[in-house]
Design goal:
CATH architecture of the largest domain: 3-Layer(aba) Sandwich
Strand content: 25-35%
Number of strands: 16
Distance between the termini: 6 Å
Number of domains: 2
CATH superfamily of the largest domain: NAD(P)-binding Rossmann-like Domain
Shape: globular
CATH class of the largest domain: Alpha Beta
């Protein structure tokens, strides 16, 4: 039994962001149609709280795969060669259950997370969006600059982070990659004046108050993914037209929503639906230029499986990746 092992460099080469956005859009619709099975992500924390192991099993009907993503999360790795998220996506045949591929999970996660925000921005943000704020300066901050540039004609990116020096260094590096204007700011209020705001931080508490947001903004809330952390406050949740990738996950893991619910300012019905349902026309998106729209991203295994499938098939065609006899 041979398994194809595909590394990070090959994933990055075979899966350009534009293609990943198309694949994630398909995964979102697939999930909304009920043609994907995805139990709630589980995590095993180390006793010293230094890191954890996250596990996301699932099934997709098109392409047809049984699979799981296993990812370690070690926040202290930020800025090192290892990165904070490392892991793999495993693909299993659905007829006989044999493993078929092992795909680098860090690269897939890097791409598909920013691609999901791009799809949400495409369907929820105002069409005349020109400025985008990136809160954070890690891997996802860089990935979001890349993906946002594809779905909107961005004239200006504004980067903010808790470390002014790191923010400046990040913006300078991105300017060498992207032709768009990219500047770092020390004052978060300046960043919050942008048309779209992407929060990609490891913050445990809200980064700003709702009163600092103007009408019409769209938010992609990406960084917090466990019930005990939140990048935004409860008033921001309650003010927004709130959308998710997968409602079951949001009800269990979205710390910002759970805090607002606990405070009594929202109920479960405040979640209007998934981006997949908006794409299908089942749920209405933005209704007015003054609406504050919000996409809460927690990640879906359907996105990982659809993306890994594409990488695997490309690798097959090019006969690349290591074939391992298990």
């Amino acid at each position: 039994m041979y398994v194809r092992v595909i590394g990070e460099a090959d994933v990055n080469r075979l899966l350009p962001m534009q293609k990943c956005i198309e694949l994630v859009r398909h995964a979102m619709i697939l999930t909304a149609e009920g043609r994907a099975l995805q139990p709630i992500r589980t995590g095993l924390a180390l006793p010293n709280t230094h890191g954890l192991l996250g596990m996301m099993p699932g099934y997709t009907a098109d392409p047809q795969w049984l699979g799981i993503k296993v990812t370690s999360v070690f926040p202290s790795n930020h800025g090192t060669e290892y990165g904070s998220h490392q892991g793999m996506v495993l693909l299993f045949d659905t007829q006989v259950g044999c493993p078929v591929a092992i795909v680098n999970g860090r690269a897939v996660t890097y791409l598909r997370t920013a691609a999901a925000s791009a799809v949400a921005t495409e369907v929820l943000a105002r069409s005349n969006t020109r400025s985008i704020a990136i809160l954070g300066y890690g891997d996802q901050a860089a990935a979001h600059i890349q993906s946002m540039s594809i779905v909107r004609r961005v004239e200006r990116f504004v980067v903010w982070g808790r470390s002014i020096q790191r923010s400046r260094e990040f913006a300078a590096k991105q300017r060498s990659i992207q032709p768009t204007e990219i500047e770092s700011v020390a004052d978060i209020e300046e960043a919050l004046g942008c048309d779209v705001i992407c929060t990609t931080t490891a913050a445990e508490r809200p980064l700003f108050q709702s009163s600092m947001l103007g009408d019409g903004v769209h938010l992609n809330v990406v960084g917090s993914s466990i019930p005990t952390t939140a990048e935004i406050d409860s008033d921001t949740v309650s003010r927004s037209r709130y959308y998710v990738d997968y409602k079951d996950s949001a009800l269990a893991l979205a710390g910002d929503f759970l805090a607002a619910k606990s405070a009594g300012v929202v109920t479960d019905e405040h979640i209007l639906g998934s981006i997949g349902e908006v794409l299908m026309g089942r749920v209405r998106g933005r209704q007015s230029p003054l609406d504050i729209t919000l996409f809460k991203s927690l990640g879906m295994i359907s996105e990982d499986l659809v993306s890994a499938d594409y990488v695997y098939r490309c690798a097959q065609q090019e006969e690349i990746g290591a074939l391992v006899d298990l």
